[in-house]
Write a structure and sequence with these properties.
- The protein has about 250 residues and is of the alpha/beta class.
- The protein folds into two domains: about 120 residues, Rossmann fold; about 90 residues, Orthogonal Bundle (Arc Repressor Mutant, subunit A).
- Helices cover about 40% and strands about 20% of the residues.
- It has nine helices and twelve strands.
- Helix 2 runs parallel beside helix 3.
- The longest helix is centred in the first third of the chain and has 15 residues.
Amino acid sequence: MRILVIENDQKLAGYLRKGLTEAGGYLVDVSHHGAEGLHLATEGGYDLIVLDVMLPGMDGFEIVSTLRRSSDAPVLMLTARDRVMDRVRGLHAGADDYLVKPFAFSELLARIQALLRRGGARAVQANPPLRLADVELEPSRRKAYRGGRPIALTAQEFSLLTLLLQRQGQVLSRAEIAEQLWDMDFDSDTNVIDVAIRRLRVKLDSPFEEKLLHTVRGIGYVLERRDLPIQTNPVIPDGSDPGTPRDTP
């Protein structure tokens, strides 16, 4: 599932992105500006929006009020304003929930999960299963299968597989994966991406003949179908071709 965080405080926004990615396995985008955040919220197809009130360019109340004209994505407002009238104003503007800073991350995560569950059928329709060959991933239920059998994935592995399925057929560099899932500048000396890919490959590909997760040497990784190697007929001891009938005495 995709979450948009519109938060003026860059340090807090980074903390939220890292926490939601690691704890919830969500794909998280961040904006620090009101107008930019509204554009992303309107065009990005997000499942949930975490929205600060105090933003440059346009405040959170105006954003959620404008957003409600075109989107029913759940909105969780964050603010340092703890007055009842401010909370009421946010809810009247169209927010689904309201959390006052400072807050415990565990409470934020629980509220997000509750809002996503509350979406019910809308969330399922907005997040159709992702498929490739015999792999199926259900974003709304956070389930993945191959050959009809469930794949036990960590939150990080689920996010990685989601990204690869969304971009199937496209070669993703290590830097792109790091930026999308870990919100980090890629360090060519670290093997964190390679380790994550290797762990996912063991669960996704190892038990199956058809391999889907491929390394593109010197560039990155791609999830796609490729032709299986052609199996030649085995050579039998007398050197004859088993596909050719042999004379019988």
